[in-house]
């Protein structure tokens, strides 16, 4: 079953393209320390706001820092923020969704009303509020984004559990004497996992944009460490003199987000049991 | 509330069983009543039956008559908020299943008492290998390692006659046919040598040739283990094939019960008679197949008396107002009807 899904994923050109984009950025982020680049915070007062050239492939910024190096190191911050915050959202949200959907009753009522309240606030506004409350740093930005994305996972998981818990095999599990914990872990969770995985992939893209937004607002990655969002923040002051400063982070965010979205769509199609 | 009693055990002319403890009472359900939330009366009303080792009791009736609810109540698998057990006792191995704590009941389920479901296509967890699922049932109740549990699963696959059992252990449910999946379900249910097996329409979802195979297999395994079996079905062909005793249910009450031959040859309750005559037979068709007009009333429309009165061709005023007592003769044949024996009505000109 898993291998069939994999075959389907690999046969989908746009999903493959998405996967390639994502893999490319992940590879760049991982390889950052061993690439032959200047440090991302190394300034060169002789090369301030220089256009792309052989010495600086992507040009330099207002402090003479190499933009290629900053882009590469910035990929680490962006991807990590995307993945870690979604990880937080899944780890916190899925158990709440499982409990709410499986047990129902007042537990479900409490969890669902809190989720409704959180969902009534726009995602980014909530993230900004939380990040401002926690204080500006990349770690806090990831926590803020993760908690803001969490309600979606609670609601998604709960809905899936409601569908799965009436399946015959769950009753079968009860009939062989399994308790709630084991049924949740072995019979419910694995069967609601596919849509969660799809949602998680798509949410990584949203989280990367959210991190860029928070960093742009000064609530994320703190200078001089680079992130694509904070690079855009600086670049906006020099749009006339050095448009490339804004161009590269913009393109990178666009590509990585479209990569995750294509991958997520592909996963959704591949994991959908209704299509052969 | 009527109290009906079915003695399913102790029949002298039952088939010889190799199992030990043949004839000993395994399950005694008495006066079981279940009320669903928001309903005015007990949907399951005063159901009683007894099940003995090595015997098969078939619970028969049309859809919605409460067969499955009765069995689920016995296993305590009903959702507690939606379906309340209002009275009764289900004595299994000297313990009342209806009063055990959740932990105690989980220890009994799948070990001493097991269940086979109707839909083999959906009764197995799609994301795990079937061998692991059978092994899980073993490991839940026995102190065994992974390898031993797997060995036991393999042994069970052999016993339920799954071809190439070593390879099938590592198959996922979707790789197996319906018949094979039902064999896996049976293997899982019997893995811990239960004393009582409840089978809820185990062959309904299978095609006819597979049905016969599965029934034969269940019969063989039951003979080997000496387990008692409660088989729920609406298929009288299955009943004739496998039952020692039959209990006919209508709208949540047992209306007639007794040894299988007696029920087929000498049915007394008008509902049983209706069921028997609505069974198609081989040979040239002789007119239209008989049907029982109408359908099972909802609990809101149950008459205070006999629940079959609304559809019964012989019903009188009394039938609607007073619950007929369940009376049993010396052969273990019992029924609940004011109008029996029906023959006397027919002879008297039948003012129905």
From TrEMBL, chain B:
Residues annotated as domain ABC transporter: 27-276
GO terms classed as biological process: peptide transport; transmembrane transport
Keywords for this protein: ATP-binding, Cell membrane, Membrane, Nucleotide-binding, Transport
Keyword Amino-acid biosynthesis: no
Residues covered by region (Disordered): 1-22
Membrane topology: Peripheral membrane protein
Compositionally biased tracts (Low complexity): 8-19
Gene Ontology MF terms: ATP binding; ATP hydrolysis activity
GO CC annotations on file: plasma membrane
InterPro entries: AAA+_ATPase, ABC_Ni/Peptide_Import, ABC_transporter-like_ATP-bd, ABC_transporter-like_CS, Oligopep_ABC_C, P-loop_NTPase
TM region(s), chain numbering: none
Domain of life, source organism: Bacteria
Gene3D superfamilies the record matches: P-loop containing nucleotide triphosphate hydrolases
Pfam families referenced in this protein's UniProt entry, alphabetically: ABC_tran, oligo_HPY
Compartment(s) of residence: Cell inner membrane
SUPFAM superfamilies per the UniProt record, alphabetical: P-loop containing nucleoside triphosphate hydrolases
SMART domains (alphabetical): AAA
NCBIfam families xrefs: oligo_HPY
Name of the protein in its database record: ABC transporter ATP-binding protein
Organism: Pararhizobium mangrovi
Top-level taxonomy: Bacteria, Pseudomonadati, Pseudomonadota, Alphaproteobacteria, Hyphomicrobiales
